Amino acid sequence: MKKKLTSGLAILAVFGLAVSAMPQASAATKSIKIGLLFPTTGPMALLGTDQSVGAEMVLKWANSKGGIKGVPIEIFKGDSKSSPAEGATAAQRLIDQNGVQIIIGSYSSGIAAAIAPVAQRNNVILWEVGAVSPTVNSQRYSNFLRTVGVSATYAAADYDFTVNFLAKKLGKPAKSLRIAIANNDGAFATSVGDAVNSLFTKKGLDVVAKEVYPVTSTDLTPTILKLKAAKPDVLFLTPDAADALLFWQTAQQQNFNVDALVGSSGIGGAGFVAKFGAAGVEGVYDVEAPALATMNYDGLDPAVAALTKEWVKAFAASEGHPCAVHCGDGIGGAYTLVTDVLPRAFAYKNTTLTAKGIIASAMRTNIKEGGTPQGFGVKFSNTSKSTPGENERARSVIMQWQSGSLKVVWPAGLASSTPIAPMVTWDKRK
Amino acid sequence: MFASVLVSGLVLGGIYSLVGAGLNLIFGVVKIINFAQGALLMFGAYFSYWIVTWLGIDPYLTLPIVAVGMALLGYLIQTTLINPVLKQERTSQLLITFGISLLIQNGALALWGPDIRFVQSFAGYDTFAFLGIRVGVSAAIAILGAAIIIFLLFVFLNKSKMGTAIRAVSQQSDSALLAGIDVKRVYAIAFAIGSAMVGVASVLMIPIYDIYPLMGEQFGVIAFIVVVLGGLGNVQGAAIAGVFLGVTQNIFAVYVSNQLSVAILFLIFLITLLFRPQGIFIRKMRVS
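^ inputs. structure came back:
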């Protein structure tokens, strides 16, 4: 009898603890706790920090305007240290110690994939502004919402640009162009390289080489020599920050020339032009979400354009370099959250913010083209789709290094300059 | 293309030999696994970078300052951090160099941030070509430097009094102690010379490789493979091992699998540990 009583009390105690630990749905939200979880140390820190700073600027701006419907945002910062395992630990820490309701992250696809289950398990939203691999949410987590495009948007932009500009400019039918694809073996680069290869092959373009090199490789001469032997007209390159510089340096040393190189990631970074100079990078293309500092704001809603210019200026002043692609991802993603999703999410249960409310609000998001700092609209795919929580209106643009500045050149609506092709050869760069 | 691949492998191998040379001395003499080797390489690179930035001189001219500075740092590390744990269990020795590595890496990150930095030498990114094979001038300088440094180390170990003492300690530290050699001082000098060699490697590498807090990680790992393959304390063996690894990596990348070209080095490492843990070249060219 005594044993039964003890067991009953224990069950009651556990039940009581469980009830007390549950989010208090009836209590009004006094502050919105948002965690910024990016790689701010380690090899990804260079661009991860840009993304984090961009997102933080927008959250602080929202606070300066009185928060979300009068509720202030509390900002907590985590560091994934460029590691998926560290990212998952830092996410759990943000949830346990700071009680964050939303995590904005993650820059890297590998890290995002590690954070997503942690967020789902704790009923916290992972608001993804940087990772592009479609496999990040292969488990179809309902708490995963991504504002930036997946690797397929890179491939779509590459294909559109190749067929509708490069082929014409280079005087060859698109199917006669010799296409080479190279990427490192990291999650991001692999997803983009595979997406480009898959789309181009499906569309009947002539992919003459597909090279995957180790991200840890200390010498890219073999990669360059193999690509050179394939004699491509156009090269699509997806590196990270450090190998982008090594690749281009090796290309110069091996006198590897192509009519067009469309890179991404480190190719669009400030370090690329700093290392090789304006002449050294002239004509190199970069496919990504638009670099805010050099895009054409004419296509943006005037109010969004004014804010974007303000943030771009503030970013350059605080970080010492222009707000390019990754800073733009942070700004664009956070902007949609604080101006569209969160205000409506409060309406779901009056003054209480819940994960369910945020998701319900996000499903009603319908931002048209020009309505975000990055130019593209936002509409999240719902759970009936194979990839829920993805921004169906996200897209990538083609930029080009021109006179030391990365300018948006394609599509015309967001272009701030006209694309130039073919690219000059190494002997004419000096 | 084969000739180009071969030459690029020789160049890469030369760099591996250079990085491995310093570790080889420390590993062979002090008998401690220096996990801080990659971090020291990175520190040497920043050291040179800041001298170049402040004085506006060519990176190659920083070589004597960096070599001496790194030697002092190495001496300090050995005398203050490693000597006290030499008699303790193996784990303590491993953890102390691991701790030093983390300290240097995180210190660099905190002080200088994650930005990728670079320097340009007088050679820029120039190349020279012979028979259609292109080699970067900076890479050629690195190879030449590696050959000179490894030769000088060999001469020092075999012809100088201190070199003899180092070899004696390397062979049998207890007997060396009985013979009147100050073993702890020899350890410190060996660590200092090893660190100076890492400094030289840093200076010769930064016109080729960019500088950031984790730049030394991969080279640090490969240095271990070089040392294990070449044999502990075997200067020429490690030099040959470095070249062998570089050539293997690049030939494998072109003719077998580019993606697995780094993994193959670890496979070689495992096979060596399993079947010839004393190193491939230890019998014929042992100097210790």
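The first helix of chain A runs from residue 2 to 21. The longest strand of chain A covers residues 206-213.
thumbs up if we can close this ticket
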